[in-house]
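Example: Berberine bridge enzyme-like 8.
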Amino acid sequence: MTVMNRDFPELGLQKQDCMEMSWIQSVLYWANFDPKTSPNVLLDRTYAADFQKRKSDYVQTPISKTGDLDIGITHNGKDSYNEGKVYGLMYFKGNFDRLVRVKTMVDPQNLFRNEQSIPPFPAKSRIYRK
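Written out as structure tokens, the predicted fold is:
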């Protein structure tokens, strides 16, 4: 709770919004089983999961994930950081540069990308941004 409220205060997360569970219990929960169910039910390959569209109750203001290309795109070239910053600051607010640092560490060549993905820092500025 402390970390979530420190890093994401805009969520307004409260203790009653949370259910503490293990990873496997969360898998059961999202597969529409009671989290106390034996994980062995997941081994049944004949089980037809009832996948549904879901929403997160803790999101106060909807965030469009359909690709608002009108607010900006990156062409994934040498200026991708500056292009990405245009829409990145709108989508991710104060987290944009932090996400760019992670992207730069994990995918510096920008292999995993689309027109509105998080860009890595330009190669010549990487040593100054750590």
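Residues 75 and 110 are 12 Å apart (CA to CA).
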